[in-house]
């Protein structure tokens, strides 16, 4: 047994080692052929490896919350095409290094949809990194020397899909505008970006504090991109309104029953 354990370890078949006792039991009970047994044993090892890789990718992706397209109330946002979102869910945008930009006011589901697509990409085997623009700027601003800045930039350049959430809530410093440009330029035709913003493209010159840089950045960001503008109500407001108690008679002037 010890010898066999070490063989599994040497061959790095730890998932097969764990799965073997129940597999052997099923094989004996159901009289599996050698072929069936071998196929199931190899599948157990492969499934274990895939699962472990998914857990690693999920951890590295820093996804802040679990969201799905099925959990999105499309009729609530009629300006958004459900069909386009379902098409994006086939993830060809990741394979073709196409960017996705969600534009719209707060509470319209930009982060929700980005997270849902990011999770699908992870499950399909792509590497993903989620960041808000504020966190990205902080990580790059705090790099104390050029070597560290380069290695931090690399962290955002390497994944197949980078989500940059909440661009535009604050005006960018010249350094931050430059980092964002460097990042978009480095990923151009190499990897996808999902970017969310509440600021229309016409205002990006002001946002970045530099019209020329904004033009050059948008040129690269939008060359291969799907832009989805969501012009609708805030779902947060809807949830808040639904959690409020219905108007009581007292609020309309007459006392509730039994109250003098
Ligand atoms: P934004 O990023 O545009 O400000 P969020 O995606 O953060 O908005 O949405 C705010 C909250 O409302 C989240 O909890 C999100 O899951 C939820 N939400 C937004 N739009 C919808 C929708 N159409 N259907 C279901 N939940 C939604
Ligand atoms: Mg958001």
Provide the descriptors you would attach to this structure in a database record:
alpha/beta, about 55% helix, disordered C terminus, binds adenosine-5'-diphosphate, binds magnesium ion
Give the oligomer, counting copies of the same chain as homo and different chains as hetero. single chain
For the termini, the CA-CA separation is 83 Å
Class inferred from helices and paired strands: alpha/beta
The ligands found in this model are: adenosine-5'-diphosphate, magnesium ion
Radius of gyration: 25 Å
Order of helices and strands: HHHHHEHEHHEHEHHEH
Poorly predicted regions are 250-260
Strand order of the largest sheet: 2-3-4-1-5
Give the helix level as a range of percent: 40-55%
Shape label? globular
The major pleated sheet works out as: 5 strands, parallel
Query: Mean of the pLDDT scores?
Result: 91
Structure description:
Strands 2-3-4-1-5 form a five-stranded parallel beta sheet. The longest helix has 28 residues, at 34-61. Helix 2 (14-30) packs antiparallel against helix 3 (34-61) and helix 9 (174-187) packs parallel to helix 11. It has twelve helices and five strands. It is 54% helix and 11% strand. The site of adenosine-5'-diphosphate has 16 residues, from helix 6 and helix 12. Residues 67, 72-73, 76-77, 104, 106-112, 196, 235-236 line the site of adenosine-5'-diphosphate (ADP).
């Amino acid at each position: 047994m010890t010898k066999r354990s070490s063989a599994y370890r040497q061959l790095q078949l730890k998932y097969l080692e764990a799965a073997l006792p129940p597999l052997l039991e099923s094989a004996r009970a159901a009289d599996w052929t050698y072929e069936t047994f071998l196929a199931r044993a190899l599948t157990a090892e492969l499934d274990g490896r895939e699962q472990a890789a998914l857990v690693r990718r999920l951890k590295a992706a820093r996804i802040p919350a679990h969201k799905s397209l099925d959990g999105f109330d499309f009729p609530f946002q009629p300006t958004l095409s459900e069909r386009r979102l379902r098409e994006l869910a086939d993830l060809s945008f990741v394979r073709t290094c196409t960017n996705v930009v969600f534009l719209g006011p707060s509470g319209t589901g930009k982060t929700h949809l980005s997270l849902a697509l990011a999770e699908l990409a992870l499950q399909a085997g792509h590497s993903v990194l989620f960041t808000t623009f504020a966190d990205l700027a902080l990580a790059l601003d705090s790099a104390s020397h050029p070597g560290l800045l380069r290695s931090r930039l690399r962290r955002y350049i390497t994944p197949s899909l980078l989500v940059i959430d909440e661009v535009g809530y604050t005006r960018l410093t010249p350094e931050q505008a430059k980092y964002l440009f460097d990042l978009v330029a480095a990923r151009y035709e190499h990897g996808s970006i999902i970017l969310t913003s509440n600021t229309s493209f016409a205002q990006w010159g002001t946002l970045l504090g530099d019209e020329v840089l904004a033009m050059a950045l948008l040129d690269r960001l939008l060359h291969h991109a799907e832009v989805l503008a969501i012009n609708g109500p805030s779902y947060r407001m809807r949830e808040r309104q639904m959690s409020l108690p219905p108007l009581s008679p007292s609020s309309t002037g007459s006392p509730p029953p039994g109250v003098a």
